[in-house]
Amino acid sequence: MNAAQQYYTVEQIAELLDLHVKTVRGYVRDGRLPAARVGRQYRISREDLEAFTGTPVSPASAPRGPRADASSIVQVDGVDRHTADRLANAVTATALGRHGGSGTDAGGRLRVETVFDEERDSLKFVVLGDLDTTAELLKVLDALIGGMR
């Protein structure tokens, strides 16, 4: 490895691209993201990362300061499978539509998971993201649920 060349760890790539570490490791294992193995870890060159993303990578910046995230669980009781599917699809589409299809926008991070419990007719939304983006999505969810009443 050229000492002058900049290399990133899988964890750094995950942070830069706002992806889960396992996703980046999968890209490396699949050969989509070239990497060199150093001991038990992978190192990805700046050039390979730029080729993978198709865009220049900005140099590592100074720490951004404090960052706040929210983890929210919303339980909606008294819904059948059809209604649960409609709600889940609407919320997921809203999250993806507002945040560039990847679940994120320039300033926001957002992840939405849903779980339906058929025995209890209950739907749970697990929302993870920054405070503003999470608050926006929770308002949309509240409006959707309010429209069901």
From TrEMBL:
Classification via InterPro entries: DNA-bd_dom_put_sf, HTH_17, SinI_DNA-bd
Pfam families the record matches: HTH_17
Annotated Helix-turn-helix domain residues: 7-52
Family matches, as SUPFAM superfamilies: Putative DNA-binding domain (SSF46955)
NCBIfam families documented for this protein: excise
The protein, known as: Helix-turn-helix domain-containing protein
Organism classification: Bacteria, Bacillati, Actinomycetota, Actinomycetes, Kitasatosporales
